[in-house]
Amino acid sequence: MEKIAMLGGGSWATALTKILSENGARVDWWLRSKDDVQHLLRTRHNPRYLSAVQFDLNRVYPTTDLEDAIEEADWLVLAVPAAFVQPVLDKLDRDSMKHKRVISAIKGMIPSKNQPGDRLRGRAVPAGPAPGGVIAGPCHAEEVALEKQSYLTIGSPDAELALEFCGLLRNRYVRAHPAADLDGIEYCAVMKNIIALTGGIAHGVGYGDNFLAVLVSNAVQEIRRFLQAINPQPRDLSASAYLGDLLVTAYSQFSRNRTFGSMVGRGYSVKSAQLEMNMVAEGYYAVKSIHEPQQKAQGAHAHHHGRLPDSVRKSGSRHRNGASERPAALIAHESCRVYVRPQCHYLRLPGGGKHQLLLPLCDEVVVAVGNSADDTLGLIRGIGSPKIRIIETLWDDTLREGGRVLAVETDKALAAVPTDADWAIYLQADEVLHEDDYPAIRAGMAQWAAHREVDGLLLNYRHFYGSYDYVGDSRRWYQREIRVVRPNAGVYSYRDAQGFRKGQNQKLQVKLLDATVHHYGWVKPPRLCSASRKPSTAYGTPTSG
Predict the structure, then answer these.
(1) Is the dihedral of CA 282, 287, 288, 293 positive or negative?
(2) Cα separation of 511 and 523, whole Å?
(3) Coil, strand or helix: which one is 492?
(4) 3-state DSSP assignment of residue 152
(5) Helix crossing, 256-265 with 270-277: angle to 10°?
(6) Which one, 187, 255, 363, 544, has least CB within 10 Å?
(7) Coil, helix or strand at residue 78
(8) 130 phi, psi to nearest 5 deg
(9) How far apart are CA 407 and CA 494, in angstroms?
(10) Cα(421)–Cα(364) distance, rounded to whole angstroms?
């Protein structure tokens, strides 16, 4: 039985541990977090990444003891992000690394050295060139978890070693092949992350697939020039280890670099995007590490490896005209589904009237739209207001239990609110505000804007039930909700988007406004409601207006 030490607790380390252990190897798996190790030992899955993967604890041995993990290992697989791997290797006893073969699964650059992760093998092994290689794609950890057909490349000048490690990886859904061009494969793996990040920014600011196709095809030429400058040799960049890895990273929904870039393009700050993703986008850390040697090699031909154009770089900090006390608006939740209408003619609220997505109240309306089968995007775009900014999101179905995904989606929209906004009004897809309440909301925001101890504003809450003729008035219905919060102040959505918290689960300091949120999530469309059918009076009473 082959003995492998896996260093790293992320999605790629999780996927590789799955492959190797299910192929019969013993994997001593080092993770930094004691809580994660305890969770793995208790439930047999990683609580943070690829949680659907179940591990056989007779083959996988999670630990936080680094020396214990590598003591009996024949192979050492480095799957710690490049920006954080050096302190891990500094903890190793170099003498214990004698005769171990080191495989780098690091797809990034060591920031302090402008070198790819494989160069750290020399730090891990006491003397002489360390025997080893690198793992390259095209392959996403998420598809490995789903056991979709995948392809891996093991780059190493040691053909025998590469073939042996390929044998440890091959199974019914993974094909693995050796390649001798270690430098080319590793640098390409780094550069494709930067290109994918740039493509994500372009997508986020509204450029289309036509632009991305030109970006990627020109990037291939840049990669060719760069590799020839630092390590000239014949290589076919159309091979899967080069072009294939670039394409899957630039276009896939699972690409963290593309996702990170798209979030920045849509207005997230770098910090907000990093917190939201909870994964490392290697391309962000690699930009400088590629740009500096590229300049030295006289190969700096494309702007996206250096300073981004102002139009892209400033997309994360938009400035608005108008009075400073006016808020940015925030509308979050699933895909705004069938009950959201730009004018809501059929919603009989006190005094009549229409709701217009808060447009009269706000300088900007951020609409978070998830995947949907209806024409939600077309509906929102059809309103035609320059105030509306749409962010398209991808729901994490693993968070649906307990409704946690609702809070995650809310936080995505909240993070997109401009940093200079005083307030963010938050509405779910089945909630509206009546225009009659706008003056009270404006007055409340103006009154409390300078009082930084006030985290949010509380509104009365009215539940329509069954039809728009009845409202829920029993004690089971919550009567008030926070619907105005300070953005960029550590406020986050709580549980299933039930409310908001700050810091370590602290309640917000709020002030009550004389305004009402109207909730119609329990209402059927009028055409489905029979005129003679009335909901139980145990849950609601007729409306008075």
Answers:
(1) positive
(2) 29
(3) strand
(4) strand
(5) 140
(6) 544
(7) strand
(8) -75, 130
(9) 6
(10) 10
pLDDT at 167 over 90: yes
| H-helix segments, 80-140 | 82-90, 121-124
CA distance 353 to 367: 22
pLDDT in tens, 373-385: 666 777 777 777 7
Beta-bridged to residue 60, according to DSSP, are: 27
Render pLDDT for 278-315 as a digit per residue (tens, 0 to 9).
Answer: 677 888 877 877 777 666 654 444 343 344 333 333 33
Alpha-carbon distance of 390 to 266, in angstroms, equals 9
Burial, 198: exposed, middle or buried (Cβ in 10 Å; 0-12, 13-18, 19+)?
Answer: buried
Residues 105/110/114/118 CA torsion (nearest 10 deg): -30
CA distances from 60 to 37, 53, 106, 148 (A): 11, 12, 21, 22
Q: Which residues contact 392 (CB under 8 A, 6 or more apart)?
A: 369, 370, 377
- Flag whether pLDDT at 27 surpasses 90: yes
Q: Where in the sequence numbering do the catalytic residues fall?
A: 192
* Residue entry with tokens 């850390």: 285
Share in percent of the chain as helix, strand, coil (round to 5): 40, 20, 40
Give the mean model confidence (pLDDT) for residues 357-364: 78
What 3-state class would DSSP assign to 489?
coil
Tokens 């709020």 belong to 510
Distinct helix (H) and strand (E) counts, the chain: 17, 21
pLDDT value of residue 48: 84
Q: What confidence category does residue 515 fall into, taking pLDDT thresholds of 50, 70 and 90?
A: very high
CA distance 440 to 40: 51
User: DSSP string covering 394-436, please?
Assistant: ---GGG-GGGHHHHHHHHHHHHTS-TT-S-EEEE-TTEEE-GG
Quick one: pLDDT band at residue 40, thresholds 50, 70, 90? very high
Give the whole-angstrom CA distance, residue 248 versus residue 253: 9
User: Rounded to whole angstroms, how far apart are CA atoms 398 and 36?
Assistant: 17
511 within 8 A of 453, measured Cβ to Cβ: no
Residue 317 burial (C-beta neighbours within 10 Å; 0-12, 13-18, 19+) = exposed
Tell me how many degrees the CA angle 23-26-30 measures, rounded to the nearest 5.
120
Alpha helices by DSSP H, listed for 278-403, are: 282-296, 310-313, 376-381
**Entry pTM:** 0.54
Q: What element of type H or E holds 116? A: strand 115-116
d(Cα 339, Cα 527) in Å, to the nearest integer? Answer: 13
Which pLDDT value is given to residue 182? 87
> Is pLDDT above 50 for 533?
no
Q: For 26, what's the count of Cα atoms within 13 Å in the CB-facing half-sphere?
A: 12
**Cα→Cα distances 55→17, 103, 166, Å:** 9, 22, 21
Residues 6+ apart with CB under 8 A from 396: 405, 408
In this prediction, residues 404-418 reach a mean pLDDT of 86
